[in-house]
Amino acid sequence: MSSVVYQGIFFLFILLLLAVPLGWYIKEIMQGRVPKGVGFLRPLERLFYKVIGPASKKEMSAKRYLFTLLLLSFCSILLLMLLLMTQHFLPGGATVENLSVSLAINTAVSFVTNTNWQAFAGETTLSNLSQMFGLTVQNFVSAGIGLSVLIALLRGLSQVKKKGLGNFWQDLTRSLVYILLPLSFILAVILISQGVVQTFQSGISYQGLEGKEAWLSLGPVASQVAIKQLGTNGGGFFGANSAYPFENPTLLSNFLENIAILLIPAALIFTFGFWMKDWKQGRTILTVSLVFLSLAFLGVAFSEFIGVNGAQLLGEMNFEGKEVRFGIGWSSLWAVATTAASNGSVNSVLDSFTPLGGAVPMFLMQLGEIIFGGVGSGLYGMLAFLMLAVFIAGLLVGRTPEYLGKKIEAFDIKMASLVILTPLMLTLFGAMALVLHPDIMSWLTNRGPHAFSELLYGATSLANNNGSAFGGLLANTPFLNGLGSLLMLISRYLPIIAILFLAENMGAKKKAALGSGTLSTVSPTFVSMLMIVILVIGALSFLPSLALGPIAEFFTQR
Question: What does the pLDDT average to over 146-154?
């Protein structure tokens, strides 16, 4: 167990070591200053603006910013659906069938909303063309949209008496050209060196051990794996995701892919501190995120080490569902990283974890995936919680709720509450809809508390734009495809709507000077207050449902 602790410490050290300079770099890029080292990418940026036209030069209000974002997302869904429903007739699609309408809608919504829920095995269901020009493209765009919305919020928090939020097309283009594309290229090259497949060939025929001919699927895997991790997307080229050797062949590739999941979300916390010119504000968020992530990692690892029956340490460790290459330590670390962020990729089978080992990743999602979280979405979700904590603390001590010198008023709390409560309510609604469906038992491979855990995890994943699954739940049904699409759409875009109007409202306010009556948001007391608010909202909302699933399973197996 001690070696696992050292693994976690080393992982976090490297993560923060890389996040600090990347955070400064992102701040410079999104403020329009291009460092000399990436100046060669300027022509590509100008090309984007030329294609977009005059719309790329105008300052946008919250309504205009939102309309442009929603229009792009709507068109992306339609185009991706069209591609998936006609892939058999397109180049390289002779060996795959067109997706059904319900599955095409679900898949398109899933990748456009940065969820990457997959009710299919990619290598047998999709052509290389669909993987490259459909899924991989949306991995970039969806991550860029999340980052753009966060930047709009940072502008609103930092500017004074100004309603404009910048230009969506500029924010999206900068995030793609200078951040996501270069990082993905670097990571993809490193992954290829480790043995991750990158070829246009769809596969090769080989003779198995029994002498029978078999087919080994190949494709442009490394390029998709790089952005699926860096963009907190998570959708795998292969059905086994990052447990498959062609996606994750070595310990080094596993470490780098795991780092990539949290790299940009962690860097954005530093970006926030640099942007506000007050690193202490970023330190508050970083402290909360590190405490939650560390406790979650230790909880999962310890549960897997003692095993299902609570045997003595190292006596009956739970290796079920885990790659022997990675063991319990790296599997546990990946499990908490992928659910703390809205990534959803896996290098082990979460359904095979112990009851409490599986409950922790589920609870991380149920907190709203704000512990580092997705690219952009994690930090703006955490800022919503922070404003709520400021408001509650101000009421408790009799001080005016202020954050970054601006008063927190009723409208701001309404918008923050929408961000916080939307995934929470959708999770409970999704679980209720699944439980009440008359065919639900035929969609589950287990019975009892574990079966409930499987459907609760599925609803949680869909409603929080994560995309991972426990397994054991038949995902490709018309009902679940439709329900999942609805959950993913609302949980993605309703918080974005609230964040953009919150940003505009905060930007229009004047900034008051800090005084003796100002509530400190950087003190250890406030850090504790923020953690309590996060835990209370999550615990009060989901403790009853967790008691019916993983907690009940834990006590029945002892």
Answer: 95
